[in-house]
């Protein structure tokens, strides 16, 4: 539990950076997004606690996704609050701090990356290509079913 609370320091920093980025990009006042900060903090904290107490191989972001889905189900009490508050922050504003933290964490493991050498590039190309063609196939099927194409 103490680890979850300790991890929340980085979460607060990332959320503040996301909200600040949103403020810079579209001019939304910083203090008008307090509810966004609270809603996202609660979801992340619940996912950290779930990861700590549940014996499962799922990563923390999977718990955050599941909690977000459950909270936003049509019959939940907090659905409107969560959707309205989190809807104020754009996806790209959240990506900025997350990618910065990911880069910093990878930068600390350069020796491990050097051992992987060219294999990591091949893996990246396979995963990227697979994701692209998988998403294209799903879009093609969906658009065909709707009669758009």
| Annotation field: number of helices | 7
Which structural class is indicated by helix and strand composition?
mainly alpha
Oligomer: single chain
Radius of gyration: 19 Å
Q: What does the overall shape look like?
A: globular
What low-confidence regions span 5 or more consecutive residues with pLDDT below 50? none
Helical coverage, percent range: over 70%
**In this structure, how is the largest beta sheet organized?**
none
DSSP strand count: 0
Distance between the termini: 52 Å
Compute the number of structural domains: 2
What is the mean pLDDT?
85
SSE order, one letter for each helix or strand = HHHHHHH
Report the portion of residues in β strands: under 5%
Structure in words:
The chain has helices at residues 2-26, 34-53, 60-71, 79-86, 91-107, 110-116, 118-146. By secondary structure, the protein is an all-alpha fold. Helix 1 (2-26) packs across helix 5 and helix 2 (34-53) crosses helix 3. The chain starts with a helix and ends with a helix. It is globular, with a radius of gyration of 19 Å. The longest helix is centred in the last third of the chain and has 29 residues, at 118-146. Helices cover 79% and strands 0% of the residues. It folds into two domains: 2-108, no CATH class; 110-149. The protein has seven helices and no strands.
């Amino acid at each position: 539990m103490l680890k979850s609370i300790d991890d929340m320091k980085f979460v607060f920093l990332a959320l503040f950076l996301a909200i600040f980025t949103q403020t810079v990009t579209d001019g939304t006042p910083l203090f008008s997004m307090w509810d966004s900060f609270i809603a996202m903090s609660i979801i992340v904290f619940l996912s950290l606690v779930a990861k700590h107490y549940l014996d499962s191989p799922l990563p923390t972001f999977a718990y955050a996704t599941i909690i977000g889905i459950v909270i936003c189900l049509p019959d939940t009490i907090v659905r409107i609050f969560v959707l309205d508050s989190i809807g104020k922050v754009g996806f790209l504003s959240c990506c900025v701090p997350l990618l910065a933290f990911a880069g910093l964490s990878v930068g600390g493991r350069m020796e491990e990356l050097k051992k992987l050498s060219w294999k990591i590039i091949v893996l990246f190309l396979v995963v990227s290509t697979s994701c692209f063609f998988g998403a294209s196939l799903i879009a093609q099927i969906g658009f065909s079913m709707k009669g758009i194409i």
